[in-house]
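Bug #77: duplicate submission created two jobs. Keeping one. Sequence:
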Amino acid sequence: VDVPLDRVAKAQRLEMLAVIKDSPWRNRWNIWVYPEVEIPHDRQLLVTADIDEALQALKRGKKVLFSPKTATIKGLEGKFLPVFWSPVHFPKQAGTMGLLCHPNHPALRDFPTDMHSDWQWWNLVKRSRVVVLDSLPPVSPIVESIDNFVNNRRLALVFEAQVGKGKLIFSAVDLLTDGQLPEIRQMRYSLTNYMLGHEFQPKTKLDAAQLRTVLHAG
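Kept job's structure:
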């Protein structure tokens, strides 16, 4: 099957449908197409994996997309699993049971998604370490991870907050190491566009010490 996709100008989900002629038999697959995009830059926006650099920028009132290395994050290993693979049956499993997305959130305007995880999330989830929010003020998750029914913790993959004079998006997905993967590039593009717009107004406040609690010391 050879289908030209060069006319796709905006990230979107397409559907491939295969039908056996003169029969009721058919199959369908979702396909996500991400055209090349140029990540916007602005002097007031910092993208970093370094907590000290992030906090300095926030102190000066900048916008920060903080995407630390997964090894530095306290939390749960990112998993792309159904509920069967839970700690009830497999005690060593991390226990996360898919995603709860907010598809109408402006931060996801350029990253097509339903309210649940699908295959376009595979590479993002596999490059993440999910944050446990239970000890933090009620921050606003943009992408939540669903905990298993044994633990029922508040988990997040991406959340926003006001820190000092600045505004933060924390991404538990590593958006920098493999940044040329199409879906990772598109997620960074979508978050950055949101952060540079007037709709980026996080309500929950965190201080520097609270932000550091989601990371390992060192």
